[in-house]
Design a protein that fits this description.
Blueprint (H helix, E strand, L loop, with lengths): L1 E3 L4 E3 L5 E2 L2 E5 L2 E7 L2 E3 L10 E3 L2 E7 L3 E5 L5 H10 L4 H13 L3 E2 L3 E2 L1
Parallel strand pairs: 1-11
Antiparallel strand pairs: 1-2, 3-10, 4-5, 5-8, 6-7, 8-9
Length: 112
């Protein structure tokens, strides 16, 4: 991902993943949470029971808007949620930087 703070430009791939994290920025609150789910194979299928992650992304603005995206953990989904509540590109850049600093961004973030 490449961000330009001066122009407010954000360029990213669609599959950059994020882990559980919560960020507050101005009037916005961003939460990404994981809750493991059990994946059970069909009877007599020879499969194994495994634990798979389920990630929820929520964005809240002081005007009580809340967006929850089920089972998603990509930066694209996070940015889409931020855009839907009217976050500016500079807000998005600041939030992405905070997510990276928290160790929850699984990709490289280049700030120009």
């Amino acid at each position: 991902m490449v961000v330009n703070e001066r122009t407010g430009t954000v360029v990213m791939g669609g599959d950059v993943r994020i882990s559980a994290v919560a960020v507050a920025h101005g009037s916005l609150t961003v939460q990404v949470a994981e809750s493991p789910m059990v994946s059970q194979p069909q009877p007599f299928s020879g499969g194994r029971t495994t634990t798979v992650p389920r990630t929820d992304v929520g964005v809240q603005e002081n005007s009580a808007q809340l967006i929850a995206l089920d089972a998603t953990s990509t930066v694209k989904q996070l940015v889409d949620a931020l855009n839907s509540v009217g976050a500016s590109p500079r807000d998005i850049i600041a939030i992405l930087q905070a997510v990276k600093e928290a160790g929850a961004l699984h990709g490289e973030l280049v700030v120009m």
